[in-house]
Amino acid sequence: MPDDWTPWLDRYRSHLEIEGLAPRTVSGRLGLLERFVSWCRDLSLPAPRDVTLSLLSDYRRHRVQSVNSRGRRDCAFSVNTHLLALRGFFKFLASKGVTPAMLLDALGYVKQPRLLPKGTLVHRDVMRMLERIPGVTPIHLRDRAMLEVLYSSGIRRQELVDLTLTDIDLEGGVLRIESGKGGKGRIVPIGKAAREWVDRYLRSARSALLGRRDDPGSLFLSKSGRRLHGGTVKDVVQRWARAAGIEKPVSPHTLRRSCATGMIRNRAHPAHVKDLLGHADFTSLQSYVRLEIVDLKDAHRRFHPREREENADDAQPPMLDERTPET
């Protein structure tokens, strides 16, 4: 029996590429769809047209309940990422008249717990980490400039790796992200301290790293003068976090979250933080915005006179001044 899955997966790949999605996003979504297709083939379903509403419901249940390679069920976010890939594929198939649009009804997202953001650093910890970098060798100057940019702008690790010399405007104080998540570009501001360290890196370190090699045009270079890899950025962040005595896990994304958390706590408008981070909507910012009420509750506990009274170690009932009549 001929298998009709592969041609449709190829057509969907082309569709995603035409839509402008980043290669990593396209590859990731097709990888998730391949897992679904493998499941369908095990059930002897040779083509998308054989998929039914009940079958998709069964697969959704399977994704929620199955155990991963680590012996645990996937978190709600991972399950929803898989469902997102499936919804996109079946929406595409419906637009081509291959499957009915009603199939999407079986692919509702699972509820995600309303958690506060994890893996963030307070400003003083970030500064302790940055100040551990001596800034005397070309590699040190590069590392300091990279971390300053990550913390100042909140850009993603791959967005940092993809920066070219023409993507940064030190005088104007902005970075151009040519292709962010989902293939979308944006302009983001970069702070004074980050600009100063990038300027020092460009004047005193980049040419030393490049040597006599052909210039790849990347803003940040490896120690061998080539384009950086994302793994190098991760190693650099973790190295200086350890040097600063920070025991919690730290990654480039930690600096991105720390940037967003610090801005929200300093009362930045969520719309501005959304645009800075390159999110399409406010959904990804919900956990950050919830920090406001957490901080408000903490302030209430610490500063309200009645709460201060209740929390004091030696709190005693207030004594009335006998000379003052009660009102």
How would you describe this protein?
- With 327 residues, the protein is mostly helical.
- The chain has 2 domains: 5-107, Tyrosine recombinase, N-terminal domain (DNA polymerase, domain 1, Orthogonal Bundle), CATH 1.10.150.130; 123-289, Orthogonal Bundle (hpI Integrase, Chain A).
- The chain has helices at 5-18, 23-42, 53-65, 76-95, 123-131, 138-153, 157-162, 192-204, 206-210, 230-243, 252-265, 270-277, 286-289, 291-303, 305-311, and strands spanning 168-169, 174-177, 186-189.
- Strand 2 and strand 3 form a beta hairpin.
- Helix 1 runs antiparallel to helix 2, helix 6 (138-153) crosses helix 11 and helix 14 (291-303) packs across helix 15.
- It is globular, with a radius of gyration of 26 Å.
Name the features.
globular, hpI Integrase, Chain A, 3-stranded antiparallel β-sheet, mainly alpha, 2 domains, 327 residues, disordered C terminus, 3 strands, 15 helices, DNA polymerase, domain 1
Q: What is the number of beta strands?
A: 3
Let me know the average pLDDT: 84
Large-scale geometry: globular
CATH-scheme architecture of the largest domain: Orthogonal Bundle
CATH homologous superfamily placement of the largest domain: Intergrase catalytic core
Quick recap:
The chain has helices at residues 5-18, 23-42, 53-65, 76-95, 123-131, 138-153, 157-162, 192-204, 206-210, 230-243, 252-265, 270-277, 286-289, 291-303, 305-311, and strands spanning 168-169, 174-177, 186-189. By secondary structure, the protein is mainly α.
